[in-house]
Hints:
The chain has 441 residues and is α+β, with helices and mostly antiparallel strands. Helices cover 47% and strands 11% of the residues. The chain has a single domain, classed as CATH 1.10.630.10. The longest helix is centred in the middle third of the chain and has 32 residues. The strands form four sheets. Strands 1-2-8-5-3 form a five-stranded mixed beta sheet.
Amino acid sequence: xxxxxxxxxxxxxxxxxxxxxxxxxxxxxxxxxxxxxxxxxxxxxxxxxxxxxxxxxxxxxxxxxxxxxxxxxxxxxxxxxxxxxxxxxxxxxxxxxxxxxxxxxxxxxxxxxxxxxxxxxxxxxxxxxxxxxxxxxxxxxxxxxxxxxxxxxxxxxxxxxxxxxxxxxxxxxxxxxxxxxxxxxxxxxxxxxxxxxxxxxxxxxxxxxxxxxxxxxxxxxxxxxxxxxxxxxxxxxxxxxxxxxxxxxxxxxxxxxxxxxxxxxxxxxxxxxxxxxxxxxxxxxxxxxxxxxxxxxxxxxxxxxxxxxxxxxxxxxxxxxxxxxxxxxxxxxxxxxxxxxxxxxxxxxxxxxxxxxxxxxxxxxxxxxxxxxxxxxxxxxxxxxxxxxxxxxxxxxxxxxxxxxxxxxxxxxxxxxxxxxxxxxxxxxxxxxxxxxxxxx
Length: 441
Ligand code: HEM
């Protein structure tokens, strides 16, 4: 499947401001009442609940909390203006995952971000992507062998864990050229405890609780060992295709790439590269269990697999919230957005807008590929604009290869219902997804 993001869009320019004293975001007609916001704050409910209350499909809405204005952006035209056309002006604030990713690319801004992205662009685009094919195939074989054994014994298992092992394995091979062993997996998978301890809300911060801090220390030790190992091979003139080698190459000419920045970039690629893909694959397994007729069709047709992935990403975009901030005073559809306003783009709600996606809550993989492409900003599981996902094609390829290896051979039958969606840093089902796999007859 062609990556459904930036490539097909033209970014143009932001429309000119209508008048310097037009209505500001604080006067929006649909702005949520302060007492609703206060009741939400008192309830301790997650941010998503507030956004759901504020949402009026097609309209620019918002709310005021803690003395700050926030505007909720869900209409495709507004999404396109913020992330596409205005991608350089509506900027990322301090990233919620900063304690984990440090100065890695996802949280960087300005010139720092531009040069980091440029360095890593080639292996993720064009023919560069082919270099990962054997790593992805190797990691898929590990899971197919697991499932063959399970089909033999009939034992149920956590398919969310399989999805996670697979995506950590593919990204680890692609970083270091080594397959994943269990001890390394233990240290890398600790990331999920750290992610769970990070604030799900925008602008949160503070100290990590002790178990997450211990997981971070184990992760750091593992990363520094990997850097030392790769440096020894690099210095000895060994050839390597892994991204770590690329970062060590950069370190030879660019003094900014010291071990700390290399560690930050590795952790960023690890976290960005495995979390979203693992959660998406888990949602795919959940959907295939709920829709065995789709699973049967997907078993024999790669085009159906592509539709299943695309539709799952529509219903469950793991990047369900893309927070930005207006750097200077801006305008959106005639509404003044004062500098510093939180601008909350919410792909989850955009993907459920009934004017854009008929019967939006239904799982209908045959929507994809759409006969006419959706308007810019209507479908953005990988974001859009300059900060769109670097790993879109990598992610699509790894998911297609794994499902292409599993679905023709196995069916899935849940032994307990999947958990409710959790709108944390990522969108994931709560708890494990326990299921039996059976060999297809
Ligand atoms: C299904 C899987 C994936 C999904 C749904 C996903 C989604 C996203 C989204 C929505 C963004 C944009 C965030 C924003 O605008 O604030 C993003 C950024 C990013 N993703 Fe992914 N991603 C996936 C897999 C991957 C993989 C496999 C990699 C690397 C191997 C990766 C690397 C990155 C990086 C480095 C960025 C930051 C780009 C930048 O700031 O310039 N992602 N991803």
